Structure formats: C-alpha cells, structure tokens
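=== Structure Prediction Worksheet ===
Name of assembly: unnamed complex
Input type: mixed (protein and possibly other molecules)
Chain count: four
Listed entries:
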Amino acid sequence: MPPRNSEATGAKGSPTAPAVKAQTGRVLGPRALQTRQRLLVAAAELFRERSALDLSVAEIARRAGTSAATFYQYFADVEEAALHLARQAAEEMPAVLDLIDGPWQGEQGLVTAQRIVEAFMHHWEAHHAVLLIRNLAADHGDPRFQEARRRALSPFLERLAERVAEFQAAGRVSDRLHPFATAAALGSVLERLSAHTQELEHRGVDHDELLATCAGIIHQVVTGGTPSLK
Amino acid sequence: MPPRNSEATGAKGSPTAPAVKAQTGRVLGPRALQTRQRLLVAAAELFRERSALDLSVAEIARRAGTSAATFYQYFADVEEAALHLARQAAEEMPAVLDLIDGPWQGEQGLVTAQRIVEAFMHHWEAHHAVLLIRNLAADHGDPRFQEARRRALSPFLERLAERVAEFQAAGRVSDRLHPFATAAALGSVLERLSAHTQELEHRGVDHDELLATCAGIIHQVVTGGTPSLK
DNA sequence: TGTACATCAGTGAACGCGCGTTCACTGATGTAC
DNA sequence: TGTACATCAGTGAACGCGCGTTCACTGATGTAC
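=== Predicted Assembly ===
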C-alpha cells in the first residue's frame, strides 16, 4: 500500500492555495482539511435533499460523522458553508466563457450558441442545489451571496453583451436592446431552463428540443434574426 | 355609523365564495375570517422582510397580535399559509393573459410586447416576496407549490406558444424553436428581469431600458425578427 | 531509535432558549322563546 | 325587550424537543533532542 496524503508531507509553504484557516485564524493541517471537506460534502448532500437554508449545524455535523463543536471550528454558521460551496461551484464558469469568443457568423453561430447552452446545462446539473440556494439568498438581499452570483455571472454577461453590441454596430440588431440587459435576459433563460429541465420534459419538451430552442433564441437575439429558417 | 360587515348578515349560502373553513372543517364566521386575514397579512409582511420558509408559527402569530394556538385553527403549518398567499397572488394573472391576444403585426407588436412586460413587472413588484418563495419551494420539488406555479403560468405560456406557432406557420420563425419551450424561455426572462430590476439598475440599466429590452426580445423571438431596426 | 513535550484536532456534556403542538378553559357572539 | 343557552373564537399554560453555542477536556500528531 503506497502512502496516501503524500502531498501533506510536501513543501510546507505551497503557494498554490491561499492556506485555509480555522475560525480562530490558525492555518489548517491535512487532517483538519479533511474534516472540513467532509463537512462541506455533508452540507452539499443535505442541500440537495432538502434545499433552502434551513439546515441545522447539528444535522450537518451528524451527516459528516462528527460533532457540532467541530463544525464551529471551521465555519461561523450554515450560511458560511453554503457560501463556500457556491464559490466553489462558480470556479467552473470560466470554461463557458471561452465559448462566447467562438464564431457567431452564419451557421457557425448556431453551433456556438449550442455549445454555450450545453456547458450551462452541464454546470447546473452538477451544482443544482447549491446554485439554487445561492440565487435564493441573493434574491433575498444577502450581499455575500449577491456578490458570489455577480462574480460567477458577470464575466459571462459582459462578454455576451460585447457580441450584442458588435452586431448592433453592424446594423443587424435593433438599437432598442440594451446590450447588457439583453445579455442578462439571455442569462436568465439559460439559468431557468437549465434549472427546470424536468418540468419541461414533463410537458413534452425533451432535452434536445430544449437545447435547440435555447440555442436558437440566443443565436437569434445576439445576431439579430435567423440566417436561414430551416 | 353604518353597520359594517353587512355582508355577514346577508344570504347565508352566498355562492360567490367557496366558504373558508377552519382546520376542524367548521365554516368560518366574519370574526374568524378577520383573524385569519390578519394572520395572512402578518405572514406576507414577514416573508417580505425575511424571505425563505424559515418563519415560525410563533413569529407570525406574534406579528398578527394573536397566539400560536389561533394560527393552528386556520392553517396546518407555515407552508399552508404561504401556499394560500401564492394562490392569491396568482389570481391577478388573467389580466396579463388578455394582452397576449393583442395585435402582433408590424409596429403594433412592439406595443403589445411592452404592455405584457409592464403588466408582468407590476405583478412582481406587488408580490415579490411571495412569488420568490413559491418559486423556491417549487424548484425544490414541493408539489403543492409546483402546481400553484403551473396554474399561474400555464395559461400565459400556452397562449404565447400559440403565437409562436402562428408565426412559424407563416414562415417567419425558425422551426428549430419548440413553441412551448420558447414561451417558457420568454416567461423566464419576464420573471427574472422583473425580480431583478434593482440589480440591473445598479449596473446602469434603468427601468425604461429594461422594459424596452425585454419587450424587444419578446417581440423579436415571437414574431421572428425586427420589422424595422430603428 | 526512543522519549518528552508542544501543538493540533475533535468532542461530550452542559446550558438556556424558543419552538411546535395540544388542551382545557374563558370570553364573545348569536339565537330561541 | 329580556333571559337562557348554544356555538364560535381565542388563548394561557404546559409539555417535550432539538437546536445553537461554549468549554474544559481527551486523544492524535508532529518535533526536538
């Protein structure tokens, strides 16, 4: 059996990660990091099952096979753990970003739109519960969650808005549309439809139709009309 | 002083309302209806302040100036009260419905789209907190809230889908778009942008620009392209 | 290699608190005669 | 109009429960020599 956790014995000042700290401010060792991770996983599981921020510290600790007292060594409260999960999920978004810079001209535009939709849906499938909670808390006005959401979505929306502005400059898209508001609207389509695939499948819209529709709308709104109707 | 509650002394079998009942099944008198209403108002206030379903019965009762025991005479739990508020809010939607049957041809189409957006935003301003909670609970899978949401949105989405299908039949809109999925996408734009006016205003998008953008997108997607770019 | 000590990490037990829920009771309102 | 009674509506008090939070303590791990 090879020794696991070999990284724990490695360079002590590894500059890659910003050094996770306990509530007291102490830097965490490998065992503590493991425990903390177990708590996060437990919280994520419970969010998936229940949802909403009505989880109790006791419940999370129980699920993680540890005690509530331990939870308080790493997080001030349940929200802090949720916030961490939300930020973790957001780290995936950059992959979607590059897609926006793909080609939008002609038929290629539709393919680009499709790829974006696929990436978004994938993202939501993987983090459904946490993203839902992030959005709820943000909607309600919690500034920490609002910022987490903004950080995750802003780069995406801004780049998309640039495309809209480009097509506007080329005279293809109506000047009535505010580029950023348009991007935000398309973002909401992506989020909502990704979050509600089941409900729509229940209504007779299968996954591929949903993807095609979503991509079609994005393509049409960004580039201003369909190049060919077929 | 004229006698108030004169309706209470009127026809005992008034068929207009379906007769509200207590948890025990007894039909409620005027005083009880007032108390029940006070509890609902208190719950709505607290939802506006807090949000999420983490309100306690004790809290609602306190706000309503009554006791928890009284709450249980009218509602089984907090969710039941929330559900009632959600259904109440949904009763406003029919007003939006008729707008969809307005003219969509030419420049009139934009006006129609604008009216729809205005009505939707108004609806959300009035019931923000409750609608947010309804959607959250529905998202999480609670079937009662899912149904409440479906009942509120379905007629709207179905009529909108009909318009999309009409423009498809006329060869104006791509066949790639699934009519109902398209309507759902536009519905999500309406809901999200209505729910997030503040956030967008924070980003330099004012209310009118938001309205124009939202209407522009709806018009373009439903009718397939802008009639004139100006 | 072995031993002594320092620090890290985890936890049982305790405390008080506010909640959900129920029940027997009081007070208010309506009705029959 | 007045009185007796029935029903409606509201509530204080009680119960047990699980939670949040803290603290002194135990056990695990690392380190110096």
